[in-house]
Design a protein that fits this description.
309 residues, alpha/beta, Alpha-Beta Plaits, six-stranded mixed beta sheet, four-stranded antiparallel beta sheet
Length: 309
């Protein structure tokens, strides 16, 4: 559905996007991760045919961004991170106006608008003025607007930016539904834990370079070079730490100010069943023993260097 080949954009001596190669299939929800200025928005604008690349090619549903721009714009829904609304319109009027810009026949507009409002759970605001909506409600109306022409490909630039926790959960649930509808979605975000719940694939971009691209499980595995265990014992914490340091599978032990033992295992160690057995046989009472999870935040910190343009 989306394929880029060495997609590149320069601004003078600055390389904003450098030879991006990406391939997404129908139903993929792709989390595009990177700091501000890393090239996320520039990449999405080129895919949406709003910005011409300096080099490379991109295909949307098999159509070239150079020779099939009008066709691609019918296939793509692009939601920028910030967009304006018209103060003197109700929600339903606002959506019907955009139906007209998409050349949707007038006889079908009201029905389509009602369907999209229901999809984004905003039917109860159909007659409200758009300038009276909250930030989260405005984002959902923006997503409804993006969906009016039933695009197969969705490009969502920071859809959860500036939202409160409840609004972020609502946007996350919407993204899940879009994936279930077999839409191909690229969504950029800084809210990394929530992307892991909705994305089938993630990519990490830094200084214009796509340095990580894979499904979520692959990225997590790549980030986890060593297993870390969190252990708490009832008493004699320092003695327990010294005992663990003598284990062949343990690389290092750190005791936090909350008396938690953070135990880092040596590379390639997968079986650590001897560690709790060793503690118990030496008289230590375990009150906590767990493997620390690797999430997208951890993966991002492990796999990137924090470089910006």
């Amino acid at each position: 559905m989306i394929e880029t080949r060495n997609l590149t954009k320069r601004y003078g001596n600055l390389i904003a996007v450098n030879n991006i190669n990406l391939k997404l299939e129908e139903g993929d929800v792709f989390g595009f991760i990177g700091p501000n200025g890393s090239g996320k928005t520039t990449t999405m604008r080129m895919i949406a045919t709003l910005l011409n690349p300096d080099h490379g090619e991109a295909y949307i549903c098999g159509k070239s961004i150079y020779t099939n721009q009008e066709d691609i714009r019918r296939l793509v829904g692009f939601m920028p991170d910030f967009f304006g609304v018209y103060d003197d319109m109700t929600v339903i009027e606002y959506l019907e106006f955009f139906c007209a810009t998409y050349r949707i026949p007038s006889a079908n507009r009201r029905k389509i608008c009602e369907e999209k409002l229901e999809l984004v759970d905003m039917s109860f605001k159909r007659d409200a003025m758009v300038n009276e909506l909250s930030r989260g409600q405005t984002q959902r109306i923006g997503l409804a607007r993006t969906l009016l022409h039933d695009p197969q490909v969705l490009l969502l630039d920071e859809p959860a930016s500036g939202l409160d926790p409840r609004a972020r959960i609502e946007i996350r649930n919407l993204l899940k539904r879009l994936g279930e509808m077999k839409k191909t979605v690229i969504v950029s975000s800084h809210i990394l834990p929530e992307l892991a719940d909705v994305c089938t694939r993630v990519g990490m971009i830094e200084k214009g370079n796509l340095i990580v691209d894979g499904n979520v499980a692959e990225v997590m595995k790549k980030a986890r070079q060593r297993i870390m265990l969190n252990i708490r014992v009832k008493d004699r914490v320092e003695a327990a730490g010294k005992l663990l340091e003598q284990c062949d599978s343990v690389e290092k032990v750190n005791i936090t100010n909350k008396q938690l033992l953070e135990v880092t295992l040596n590379a390639d160690i997968e079986d650590y069943s001897d560690i709790p057995s060793n503690l118990i046989s030496n008289g230590f009472a375990l009150t906590l023993f767990r493997e620390e999870e690797v999430n997208l935040e951890t993966a991002f910190m492990e796999l990137t260097k924090g470089l910006v343009q």
